[in-house]
């Protein structure tokens, strides 16, 4: 028995934690005003279309305040960027209001973990990953939201299977293999911005449900401004309206392919990628399209946790 056609949308909510180890914040708006507005818009669109999303949230964002000390995590200096203040003082590092907005939606969105502090799992020990997941679960408990069984490792890093299982995680997003590193700059730009999105079959690997995705953002449009960052110069020669049209068609055709092949289209992005007017326009129309196809009974829009449950029933 196969999983019928489905769409999974996952959105990484990281804010200041995304590149805190690199000391990079220019992709974000001041005081996250634009990101907060984008999330509000997104929740409204999802409610209108009855489309659920998996929000991959850095656990520290659930806190409304802290002193900057997080004892027990192996390694020195990782929390140097933590301001040790509160949401009013440093809203890029604390965002309980955003999580509350997600959980207050009538749509059954899923808040899964993206580790506590955006730790690349493949670059640290299993003990560190275990600390990150346990601390994230504590943050979920303190906030009063259930611990999701889904997980998105930061920066597509590999996760420790044993550690995931002992922390109750049984569904993971994993990028499909890609030959980008073997491509020249021109082909890489084409592949990232224009190549068709291909749905794929999920799989069970050692008891863990794997939902494949692209290694690069796919919900947001890489040939437009991403958040507060300008696109690659080569794309600026192309009218914005045409770039938007290309990407929306790319997304909608991916849904159509998932329907035709009874496969799963998993698209993802960071919240900050979508935080400008052009990106929001595309996403609003895509969510409406996916919702309409779901309403017609042609496809299911699933959270990652739901995807994991369904694929276990069909294997």
TrEMBL record:
Entry-linked InterPro entries: Glyco_hydro/deAcase_b/a-brl, NODB_dom
Pfam families associated with the record: Polysacc_deac_1 (PF01522)
MF terms in GO: hydrolase activity, acting on carbon-nitrogen (but not peptide) bonds
Protein origin, superkingdom: Archaea
Domain NodB homology: 38-168
Gene Ontology BP, a term: carbohydrate metabolic process
Protein name: Polysaccharide deacetylase family protein
Lineage, uppermost ranks: Archaea, Methanobacteriati, Methanobacteriota, Stenosarchaea group, Halobacteria
């Amino acid at each position: 028995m196969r999983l019928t056609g489905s769409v999974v949308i996952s959105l990484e909510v990281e804010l200041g934690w995304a590149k805190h180890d690199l000391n990079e914040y220019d992709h974000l708006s001041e005081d996250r005003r634009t990101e907060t507005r984008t999330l509000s818009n997104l929740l409204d669109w999802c409610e209108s279309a009855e489309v659920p999303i998996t929000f991959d949230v850095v656990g520290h964002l659930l806190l409304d305040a802290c002193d900057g000390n997080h004892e027990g995590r192996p390694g020195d200096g990782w929390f140097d960027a933590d301001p040790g203040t509160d949401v009013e003082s440093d809203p890029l590092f604390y965002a309980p209001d955003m999580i509350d907005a997600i959980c207050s939606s009538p749509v059954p969105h899923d808040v899964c973990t993206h580790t506590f502090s955006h730790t690349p799992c493949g670059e640290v020990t299993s003990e560190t990953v275990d600390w990150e997941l346990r601390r994230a679960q504590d943050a979920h408990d303190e906030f009063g939201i259930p611990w999701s069984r889904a997980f998105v490792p930061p920066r597509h890093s590999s996760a420790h299977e044993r550690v995931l299982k002992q922390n109750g995680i049984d569904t993971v997003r994993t990028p499909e293999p890609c030959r980008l590193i073997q491509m020249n700059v021109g082909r890489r730009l084409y592949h990232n911005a224009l190549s068709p999105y291909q749905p794929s079959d999920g799989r069970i690997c050692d008891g863990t449900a794997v939902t494949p995705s692209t290694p690069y953002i796919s919900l947001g449009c890489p040939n437009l401004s991403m958040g507060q960052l300008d696109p690659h110069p080569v794309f600026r020669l192309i009218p914005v309206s045409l770039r938007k049209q290309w990407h929306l068609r790319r997304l909608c055709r991916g849904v159509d392919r998932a329907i035709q092949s009874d496969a799963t289209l998993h698209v993802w992005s960071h919240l900050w990628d979508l935080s400008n007017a052009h990106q929001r326009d595309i996403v609003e129309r895509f969510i409406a399209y996916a919702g309409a196809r779901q309403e017609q009974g042609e496809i299911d829009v699933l959270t990652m946790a739901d995807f994991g449950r369904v694929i276990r029933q069909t294997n």
